[in-house]
């Protein structure tokens, strides 16, 4: 298989997954802003910008942080390469380039998502309701993943697609979990337990993890268990552990270069054998920042290993 | 003088009541069929083409706006004997043209012999100095040639144009046949139609044959496309698929130590033969246009060292120039010692005073073209032009006579075609695809283009032209 084909499929999947996760990030901010004491827009919405790495560019466009501006910027702005609109567009362009590698339904699904996305203006989004829009984005992304799972040959093309989903998802789960650090005062002990409950609750809901939490722990929401679920639990599909449990064998199947496999394997063994206290020992924020960096390095290593076209 | 411009030769009807031999079985069959059969098949064909996705991209398109080239359900039928002459004629032409290209980049015998004016070649923009003294494997320059042939009478075939750079349209030849066999299986039982679908295999065999000599064990062949926004992208993807070779873009290839590699997920893989569908100018920013984003830096150096083969070779444009076209019959005599089997269309060069006088006196009857023009742009079709258009064109000619040639207006033959009003004669041309490897061959048939508008002589798809399946009968 040509490296360019693999690269396009990898980024198609990453971009579609990213659009879903942008919707999740906005969703969690939106949910938190509706909690008691959540009327301070900058406190609720700034984290969304920071964790998605869009804060600096946002500031060149808007002087203040408000719900409307952040949502317009992160959801719809065509000049923002990470906006939901831009990521859907990039996913569709990548799919279009590899149209003959993909089952018809896969391209049709992503193409109609893009066609509909093109028509959504801010006024329409308000009319639709933020939540409904976030739901729609998630639905389209999951439909896309479903069609891929239900119609694509499980050969190299499929594996590159899954690899893209997992690398992107791990990045996003880590960033979302980090939102807590940005919202709360760093001193966890002094946090108001009720506020804590609702905030962790909002995070879990945004990650479709609320029910999973209850089913596994049958307990009130405790930070340590939330970390356990989102980082270390293999059975939760958005957990970092679950992502790496899929990344490692895929890299093996694709015969990635040894360094690439080593990096993934090293991270995987930590996620598999660490206990919650190991994760939080030096502070959760530090752990997550380190994870996002290493995950990015792995993606670069994947590009090197499979000779993705160098950006010159 | 050239062929008459009056009543066109019809390939099916000899007279209003008499049908020419190749079409007799078809005429009988058609009579037996229900009246609405063709319109039903027409709709079916449309659906098939849409489903298979045989489209050409429209530049600057919005999402998903791709167009179908109209397809006509009535085949164009050539007898075995007609094809014998045609196929020999186009192969003869390609053989001579290959020899000509080799000659002009080496000893230039034909120029020394005065058969082709030296300045016409050496001062031509399409002459590639970089190719001097270089011989591609097997001495083959034109691996794929498309010869445009028109018919004006029972046994009068004329070559209108040679396409020796990156001729396209062969995917329509193959898909048209495929669709016809689905729509009219009974006709293929009655008629013994020579098959065409081995074209991709023939092409692949030839491409492997011209691999660099040291690499001919199991050479790697790729098809190089400018990308999905090119209007012929469908054809590129189709041919790559049919041959089972990778469809690559410039960015997929790189050159190291004068060796070409493609980037694959299993590491760099050496490339031996590139069937390129990119013009010379864009192939290598280091050797040609430095602003090319489509090419591969260093490709030309690798090519000159014989480390990779390009099909077609660089510099073939010198042989399909309109000014050179006129001299192809002389090339056939000079290199092959044969008389040309197919006629050329008489051509007047406005550079020459005697020709100029004749042309200016007969503008209303002639077709005048720019020497380097293509695609029917900047052309005067005398019989269809108004007095004002003619006088405006006359001024353009006077400003730079050397830039123009003139030809008689040919009465292209017609074939029965299914149009809105029913079955009616429409003008056609034919582009057979001639392949050269170890030897020169042509798959029986080609792309028949048909001008769907009544009376129109323009068969280009951009101007309302369609295609037809071309049948060569085996007996």
UniProtKB/TrEMBL annotation, chain A:
State the species of origin: Roseospira navarrensis
Which lineage do the record's taxonomy fields give for this organism?
Answer: Bacteria, Pseudomonadati, Pseudomonadota, Alphaproteobacteria, Rhodospirillales
List residues of the DUF403 domain.
1-307
Position of the signal peptide: none
Q: What is the name attached to this protein's record?
A: DUF403 domain-containing protein
Which Pfam families does the record match to this protein? Answer: Alpha-E
UniProtKB/TrEMBL annotation, chain B:
* A Pfam family recorded for this sequence: CP_ATPgrasp_2
Q: Where is the Circularly permuted ATP-grasp type domain?
A: 75-451
- The organism's superkingdom is given as Bacteria
List the protein's name.
Circularly permuted type 2 ATP-grasp protein
* Native source species: Roseospira navarrensis
């Amino acid at each position: 298989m040509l490296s360019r084909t693999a690269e396009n499929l990898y980024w198609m999947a990453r971009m579609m997954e990213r659009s879903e996760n942008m919707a999740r990030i906005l969703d969690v901010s939106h949910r938190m802003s509706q909690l008691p004491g959540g009327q301070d827009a900058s406190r609720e919405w700034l984290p969304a910008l920071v964790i998605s790495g869009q804060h600096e560019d946002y500031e060149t466009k808007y002087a203040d942080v408000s719900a409307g501006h952040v949502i317009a910027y992160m959801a719809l702005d065509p000049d923002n390469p990470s906006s939901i609109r831009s990521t859907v567009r990039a996913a569709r362009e990548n799919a279009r380039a590899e149209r003959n590698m993909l089952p018809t339904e896969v391209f049709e699904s992503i193409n109609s998502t893009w066609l509909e996305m093109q028509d959504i203006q801010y006024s329409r989004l308000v009319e639709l309701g933020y939540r409904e829009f976030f739901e729609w984005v998630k639905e389209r992304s999951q439909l896309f993943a479903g069609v891929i799972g239900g119609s694509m040959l499980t050969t190299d093309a499929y594996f590159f697609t899954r690899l893209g989903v997992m690398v992107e998802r791990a990045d996003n789960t880590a960033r979302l979990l980090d939102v807590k650090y940005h919202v709360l005062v760093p001193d966890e002990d002094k946090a108001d337990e009720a506020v804590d409950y609702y905030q962790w609750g909002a995070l879990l809901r945004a990650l479709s993890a609320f029910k999973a939490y209850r089913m596994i722990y049958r307990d009130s929401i405790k930070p340590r268990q939330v970390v356990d679920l989102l980082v270390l639990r293999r059975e939760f599909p958005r957990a970092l552990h679950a992502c790496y449990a899929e990344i490692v064998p895929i890299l093996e199947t694709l015969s990635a270069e040894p360094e690439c496999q080593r990096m993934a394997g090293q991270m995987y063994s930590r996620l598999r054998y660490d206990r919650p206290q190991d994760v939080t020992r030096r502070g959760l924020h530090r752990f997550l920042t380190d994870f996002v960096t290493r995950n990015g390095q792995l993606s670069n290593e994947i590009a090197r290993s499979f000779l993705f076209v160098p950006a010159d | 003088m050239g062929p008459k411009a009056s009543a066109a030769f019809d390939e099916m009807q000899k007279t209003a009541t008499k049908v020419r031999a190749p079409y007799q079985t078809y005429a009988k069959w058609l009579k037996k069929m229900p009246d609405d059969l063709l319109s039903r098949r027409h709709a079916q064909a449309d659906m098939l083409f849409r489903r298979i996705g045989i489209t050409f991209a429209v530049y600057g398109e919005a999402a998903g706006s791709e167009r179908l080239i109209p397809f006509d359900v009535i085949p164009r039928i050539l007898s075995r004997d007609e094809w014998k002459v045609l196929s020999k004629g186009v192969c003869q032409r390609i053989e001579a043209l290959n020899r000509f290209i080799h000659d002009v980049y080496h000893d230039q015998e034909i120029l020394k012999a005065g058969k082709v004016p030296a300045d016409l070649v050496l001062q031509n923009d399409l002459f590639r100095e970089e190719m001097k003294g270089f011989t591609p494997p097997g001495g083959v320059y034109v691996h794929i040639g498309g010869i445009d042939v028109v018919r004006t009478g029972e046994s009068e075939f004329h070559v209108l144009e040679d396409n020796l750079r990156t001729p396209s349209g062969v995917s329509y030849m193959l898909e048209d046949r495929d669709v016809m066999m689905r729509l009219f299986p009974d006709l293929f039982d009655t008629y013994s139609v020579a098959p065409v679908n081995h074209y991709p295999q023939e092409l692949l065999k030839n491409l492997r044959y011209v691999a660099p000599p040291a690499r001919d064990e199991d050479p790697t062949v790729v098809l190089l496309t400018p990308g999905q926004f090119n209007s012929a992208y469908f054809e590129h993807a189709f041919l790559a698929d049919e041959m089972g070779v990778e469809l690559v873009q410039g960015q997929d290839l790189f050159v190291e130590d004068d060796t070409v590699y493609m980037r694959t997920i299993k590491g760099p893989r050496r490339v031996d033969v590139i069937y390129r569908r990119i013009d010379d100018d864009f192939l290598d920013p280091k050797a040609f246009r430095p602003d090319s984003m489509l090419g591969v830096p260093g490709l030309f150096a690798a090519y000159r060292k014989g480390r990779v083969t390009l099909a077609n070779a660089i510099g073939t444009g010198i042989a399909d120039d309109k000014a050179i076209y006129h001299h192809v019959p002389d090339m056939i005599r000079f290199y092959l010692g044969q008389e040309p089997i197919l006629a050329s269309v008489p051509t007047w060069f406005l550079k020459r005073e005697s020709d100029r006088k004749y042309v200016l006196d007969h503008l209303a009857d002639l077709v005048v073209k720019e020497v380097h023009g293509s695609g029917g742009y900047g052309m005067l079709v005398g019989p269809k032009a108004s007095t004002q258009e003619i006088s405006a064109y006359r001024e353009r000619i006077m400003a730079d006579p050397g830039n123009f040639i003139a030809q008689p207006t040919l009465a292209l033959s017609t074939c029965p075609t299914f149009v809105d009003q029913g079955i009616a004669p429409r003008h056609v041309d034919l582009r057979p695809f001639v392949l050269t490897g170890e030897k020169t061959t042509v798959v029986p048939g080609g792309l028949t283009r048909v001008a769907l508008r009544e009376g129109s002589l323009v068969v280009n798809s951009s101007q309302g032209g369609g295609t037809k399946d071309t049948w060569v009968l085996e007996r």
